[in-house]
Amino acid sequence: MADRFARWCEAVVARLPWGLDAVVPATLLGFALINSFTFGVDLMLLTAMHGGLGLPIALSITLAYIVAFGLAFVLNRTFNFHSHAPMGKQAAVYAVVVLVNYLAFILGVGSGLTALGLDYHLARLAAGACEAVYMYSAMRWIVFRRKRSAEPVATG
Prior knowledge:
The protein has helices at residues 2-14, 26-52, 57-80, 87-115, 120-143. It is mostly helical. The chain is globular. Mean pLDDT is 86; it is low at 150-156.
């Protein structure tokens, strides 16, 4: 199933117009799909915990955020980046990436823009855009980076 997902993402990216297929990696599409899904899970859990169970909003946000980001880690690891590296080290690095994301973008950018007078919905959207760029970059080049071969590349 993971290979089928990857092939589908590659096929969709290959059909992008204006030469975008040469600059948009299939993993970016996979990331967008997976993280859109997990954002929906986040919102459903938030609604269930706060609206349904009556848990405090801060606890509901935090629990939903942790579950959604945990799910995003597993799905991206399996379906998008096809990582076979030890999960423990990756999970620890991912936890740090998520913490930085939360502090810098969710709280920092969102709260900062709101404090500067921007409507909090627009501030959250702006923070979300920053978050998406940061999270994809961190997952691709830090969390799930591929080891380079120790063998020299032959030149012709």
